[in-house]
């Protein structure tokens, strides 16, 4: 494998840093550096222990944990056994830029270290933005199989698959230390085997401090973070730099190929809870740096231009007045650069599959059918999908049954006005509207709609017709002689969804489709059945399978009546439309506090205020099971080992997609089966 062994080879690939980049390097803390230290609650910390072994960890726990004794000295509380050269990367929640500080241990006493500062540098935002550290997405990287070696330790491979961000420490020929941030999409750290990792080196400011140091001293240490988790993965060993074309091509992001890569021979890999990360609570959006402070920092950093170049002092002072505008310009520049690299706003994987509305059909004044392109239509008739939509800056998920025939290039979902999301779709969905969809999901289905001689009795009320309509359309098209009896309840004749099509299908398939409408508030000209669906409206067919769908208690009442008629339980299929628990903005403090969820054999996850246990787990890269995400399918059930939650808890299991912790909790992903 091709290796880079000289500075000349390295600079031939990455170039040399621009003068403007080097002008940002200072010998001591200026106003901007001191302000960043006052805000930063965490820092990556690179050091060598008393035995000379390279180490990287995360220190801090609260804003201002690093005390500024003078522009050339900082102190902080820690129990690490650091000596000699050390280095930091200070992190500011919600901010892309980081503060890098290099120096050496000047004093050490029990629980405290004083560092003499020799170099200060504000690092650009690319690493944070690439990783989306403060705005995580659902990781998509598969967990690699690792048979042996340090990387086979419990939880390590899963953490590597989820991490989008790491802090890497290296040392130069004279022993000087440097700690730098690296960020990318989850899974960017590649596992070659139980002893070997590869980290891509993407384009940046061309300082290449880590690579330059490795040419002189191959020892390296790394600390890796996953948003939402309180544990940190510590890795140390030796590293070489490669520009092997095939390896780099395999790590391309879109069309952008890394310029080089670090190959780490791992001697130690340890995953453990980090007290500083837990105490700092950096994953809570409420702890992010506010806009006013960000503008202040921008003004201070702009003035840095005049520190080394007095000729620029007047210009830098004038530019500081326009700090907010400069911030917006810089953010736009970063976004354009990342989009060219293949990142953009869609970095990573968002929950669900993107779909587009290609037709809107008004069924009744309060019901609309949305025809979607881009969905997986390999469903069984009767199943549902989960629509993910953004309404006024908030993301909502709601389940809607398919009403179309499976296996086509279009998916039809029919939505009756009832609640915020269904009302929004009725009033605002248009051709071209884009959403995301999960599914198909659900056990309410006809397994073999083409079966000859089958008999079905379908019983629905209101929007309960939606999965039944898919069954009707599919069975009539697929089976040569199956018969269907539909008993359909509504308030008024105007509320009957698919009224015209049901009549047309009945007429087109005489003897195969029978339709009985039941109205609870019939008009004066109505001659059909009346009341609410009950025993008097039901029929008994010895061979038929019964499918029941409706709101609230209707399915249970119909099931009880059918059981009384002699229908066996194996021929009864039930779907109930219910609302699921949601975060309550007016809830008690116990429901709005940040909690921890310990996942058995994985680690500790931070669950933010108003966040479901599922969302927190997925955001933290935990392989949580799920399907519908709205509490209907049961796929997200896990075993509740400890703690209290508000949501759906039954038989020792909790449906994480609709459950919120009231206390710190512990769960096991191995599901609790109903009845355990």
TrEMBL record:
Record keywords, A-Z: 2Fe-2S, FAD, Flavoprotein, Iron, Iron-sulfur, Metal-binding, Oxidoreductase
Pfam family, one: PNPOx_N
Cofactor: FAD
Coiled coil ranges: none
Domain 2Fe-2S ferredoxin-type as annotated: residue spans: 592-673
Family annotation (Gene3D superfamilies): 3.10.20.30, Electron Transport, Fmn-binding Protein, Chain A, Nucleotide-binding domain of ferredoxin-NADP reductase (FNR) module, Translation factors
Membrane spanning residue stretches: none
The protein, known as: Ferredoxin-NADP reductase/predicted pyridoxine 5'-phosphate oxidase superfamily flavin-nucleotide-binding protein
Source taxon at top rank: Bacteria
Entry keyword annotation includes Cytoplasm: no
Annotated ranges, domain FAD-binding FR-type: 350-447
GO molecular function: 2 iron, 2 sulfur cluster binding; metal ion binding; oxidoreductase activity
